[in-house]
């Protein structure tokens, strides 16, 4: 579903800033806010699912703030995982 809304420029600026703080674009941020609000109104939903969604939403920001880089594809290959064990 697509929704178009008109926002005053100061609200739009706040929205973009909040999205940037979470490492998201404005559309992803708005979708997350709407999902959170609906989950809240529907009794909280599944607590584990909510915790996972929160983690996924904030992981890029945490990684960036901690100065961590994503793992290279080679680091995730079977050979590199077992390399030190001589297997």
First-residue to last-residue Cα separation: 50 Å
- Indicate the low-confidence ranges by residue numbers: none
Main sheet characteristics: none
Assign a percent range to the helix content: 55-70%
Dominant shape: elongated
Radius of gyration based on Cα positions = 19 Å
What proportion of the residues form beta strands (DSSP E)? Answer: under 5%
Number of helices: 4
Fold and architecture overview:
By secondary structure, the chain is mainly α. Helices cover 61% and strands 0% of the residues. The chain has 4 helices and no strands. It has helices spanning 9-21, 26-41, 47-65, 78-82. Helix 1 crosses helix 2. The longest helix is centred in the middle third of the chain and has 19 residues, at 47-65. The chain is elongated and about 60 Å long. It starts with 8 loop residues before the first helix and ends in a 5-residue tail after the last helix. The mean pLDDT is 79.
């Amino acid at each position: 579903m697509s929704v178009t809304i008109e926002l005053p420029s100061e609200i739009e600026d706040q929205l973009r800033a909040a999205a940037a703080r979470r490492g998201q674009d404005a559309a992803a941020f708005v979708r997350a806010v709407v999902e959170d609000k609906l989950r809240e109104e529907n009794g909280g939903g599944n607590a584990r699912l909510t915790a996972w969604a929160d983690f996924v939403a904030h992981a890029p920001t945490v990684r960036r703030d901690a100065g961590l880089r994503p793992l290279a594809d080679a680091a995730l290959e079977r050979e590199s995982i077992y390399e030190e064990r001589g297997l």
